[in-house]
């Protein structure tokens, strides 16, 4: 079935999502759908002055919001979750059209937002502190968590709405205000989320206006947010190059950075692996989202004993996988985000060929005119080197053989990034070794699951050049609060700690 031109569909979706037409027409910042490269909206960019104004207004909102009881703050996030449930179909489809990911992944992204809202609502009654034994008589020592202020959120194109929700849902229940700079490649989905948020906020009398705002523009606008002294924390998701710049700027003014940067994720396939399961997990992790997830599987280490069983089947999957308009139900791989991404992919594959490595796939395929559709590439590398040690944000999977698990674990860890990793095995000892301190050095380590597709309940993030930040589940909320240690003396004497005497 042919689909309507993206531009026609986008207008209807944005209107259904409550975004007034003047917000996505007549601006200077162009949004193009990767489906056909056509212009789907133009949004007015903000200036540095607008950023300052937005942050000041957000700070005022924070001053009011921080004193609202946390469970009431949770009520706002609960209502926002309701808006998302109501609008899931439209927003998921808009994500698919603006990023090129398939509709089921667009819907999955919205589901992730709903899930993190639910998580944050529960959290709003669980921002627990501690009581600590004091060494002094008639003293009580405790640790409590207080709101931070305005949280800046910078997000990447590939998860244009979920990453904001991971941060915002937690930041808001923790008593903060948020200012969001979405990717300049995906401003329309951001406008839609903002409209849904405002609908929810209008139902909560205690929610100040300007509690959550967006600022639209390129890196320069992000820098203005990063440099603003009223922003104590910036959560920035994107390339390692971006994180290096943002992290340094924040360090200069001693502000906090929560960095979620590039990955170069690996999986190890052992002799006892369930090959059917491994095949499916590898296919989704490596080819899904056209290789444009931070957790995409990019390196595969396969034991000699199963190489000839797995790799030919994987090649068949690579040859047959359905590529095309991401709105078609049968499509599994949509287009790359743009021509630059295609170029970067071709350069990496040329480097691989120059090293003498056989490259299967990787060529442009006809899809919808104007889009960059590629057949995913499987590269049989003779060693881990060259393009394999960097993140190319495209569907390229480098495959290397191994014979000793220790050597494969060493290769897993021998890159600059440390986001996600997997082992496929039915040998308990191998699985536990991989998860042990001698195993994977990544923030995420899985057994018999691919590297991509995390659940919101766990803390998400990675080590080394991935930036060290943790978002979403577990105790990630602590990043959005400041810790205060309070000691109360309820006696009449003033004993000093460590037995110090100071009698005047
Ligand atoms: P990008 O680095 O080009 O841009 C990300 C965001 O940072 C955009 O909003 C951009 O405008 C902004 N930005 C860029 N330079 C900046 C600067 N100097 N100061 C302030 N803001 C700046 O990334 P992208 O191409 O949109 O996304 C792909 C990258 O993001 C990949 O490397 C991917 O691995 C990474 N990513 C990481 C995670 C994670 O959770 N670890 C999640 C999604 C994407």
From TrEMBL:
<dbReference type="InterPro" id="IPR029510">
    <property type="entry name" value="Ald_DH_CS_GLU"/>
</dbReference>
<comment type="subunit">
    <text>Homotetramer.</text>
</comment>
<keyword id="KW-0560">Oxidoreductase</keyword>
<dbReference type="InterPro" id="IPR016163">
    <property type="entry name" value="Ald_DH_C"/>
</dbReference>
<dbReference type="InterPro" id="IPR016162">
    <property type="entry name" value="Ald_DH_N"/>
</dbReference>
<feature type="active site">
    <location>
        <position position="260"/>
    </location>
</feature>
<dbReference type="GO" id="GO:0004029">
    <property type="term" value="F:aldehyde dehydrogenase (NAD+) activity"/>
</dbReference>
<feature type="domain" description="Aldehyde dehydrogenase">
    <location>
        <begin position="28"/>
        <end position="483"/>
    </location>
</feature>
<dbReference type="InterPro" id="IPR015590">
    <property type="entry name" value="Aldehyde_DH_dom"/>
</dbReference>
<comment type="similarity">
    <text>Belongs to the aldehyde dehydrogenase family.</text>
</comment>
<dbReference type="InterPro" id="IPR016161">
    <property type="entry name" value="Ald_DH/histidinol_DH"/>
</dbReference>
<dbReference type="Pfam" id="PF00171">
    <property type="entry name" value="Aldedh"/>
</dbReference>
<protein>
    <recommendedName>
        <fullName>aldehyde dehydrogenase (NAD(+))</fullName>
        <ecNumber>1.2.1.3</ecNumber>
    </recommendedName>
</protein>
<keyword id="KW-0520">NAD</keyword>
<dbReference type="InterPro" id="IPR044638">
    <property type="entry name" value="ALDH7A1-like"/>
</dbReference>
């Amino acid at each position: 079935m042919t689909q309507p031109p993206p531009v026609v569909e986008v207008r209807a979706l944005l209107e259904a999502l409550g975004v007034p037409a003047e917000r996505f027409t007549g601006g200077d910042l162009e949004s193009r759908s990767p489906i056909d490269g056509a212009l789907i909206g133009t949004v007015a960019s903000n200036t540095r002055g607008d950023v300052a104004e937005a942050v000041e207004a957000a700070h005022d909102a924070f001053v009011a919001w921080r004193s609202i009881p946390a469970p009431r703050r949770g009520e706002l996030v609960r209502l926002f979750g309701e808006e998302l449930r109501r609008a899931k179909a439209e927003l998921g489809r808009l994500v698919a059209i603006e990023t090129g990911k398939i509709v089921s992944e667009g819907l999955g992204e919205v589901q992730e937002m709903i899930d993190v809202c639910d998580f944050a609502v529960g959290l709003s009654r669980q921002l627990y502190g501690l009581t600590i034994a004091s060494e002094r008589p008639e003293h009580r020592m405790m640790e409590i968590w207080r709101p931070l202020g305005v949280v800046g959120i910078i997000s990447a194109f590939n998860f244009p709405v979920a990453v904001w929700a991971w941060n915002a849902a937690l930041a808001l229940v923790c008593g903060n205000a948020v200012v969001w700079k979405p990717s300049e490649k995906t401003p329309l989905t951001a406008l839609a989320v903002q409209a849904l948020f405002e609908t929810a906020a209008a139902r909560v009398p205690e929610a100040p206006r300007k509690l959550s705002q967006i600022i639209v523009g390129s890196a320069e606008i992000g820098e203005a947010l990063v440099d603003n002294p009223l922003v104590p924390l910036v959560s920035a998701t994107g390339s390692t190059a971006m994180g290096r710049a943002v992290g340094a700027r924040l360090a200069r003014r001693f502000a906090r950075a929560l960095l979620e940067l590039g990955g170069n994720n690996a999986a190890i396939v052992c002799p006892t692996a369930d090959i059917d399961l491994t095949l499916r997990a590898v296919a989704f992790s490596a080819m899904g989202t056209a290789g444009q997830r931070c957790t995409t599987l990019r390196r595969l280490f396969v034991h000699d004993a199963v190489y000839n069983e797995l790799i030919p089947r994987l090649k068949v999957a690579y040859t047959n996988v359905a590529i095309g308009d991401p709105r078609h139900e049968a499509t599994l791989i949509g287009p790359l985000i743009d021509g630059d991404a295609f170029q970067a992919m071709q350069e990496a594959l040329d480097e691989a060929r120059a090293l003498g490595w056989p490259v299967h796939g990787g060529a442009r395929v006809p899809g919808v005119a104007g889009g960059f559709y590629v057949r995913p590439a499987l590269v049989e590398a003779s060693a881990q080197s060259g393009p394999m040690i960097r993140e190319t944000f495209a569907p390229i999977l480098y495959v290397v053989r191994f014979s000793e698990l220790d050597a494969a674990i060493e290769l897993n860890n021998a890159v600059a990034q440390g986001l996600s990793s997997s082992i496929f095995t039915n040998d308990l000892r191998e699985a536990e070794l991989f998860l042990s301190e001698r195993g994977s050095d990544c923030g995420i380590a899985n057994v018999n699951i691919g590297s991509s597709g995390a659940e919101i309940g766990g803390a998400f993030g990675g080590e080394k050049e991935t930036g060290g930040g943790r978002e979403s589940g577990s105790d990630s909320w602590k990043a959005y609060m400041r810790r205060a240690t309070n000691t109360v003396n309820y006696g009449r004497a003033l004993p000093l700690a460590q037995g110090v005497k100071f009698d005047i």
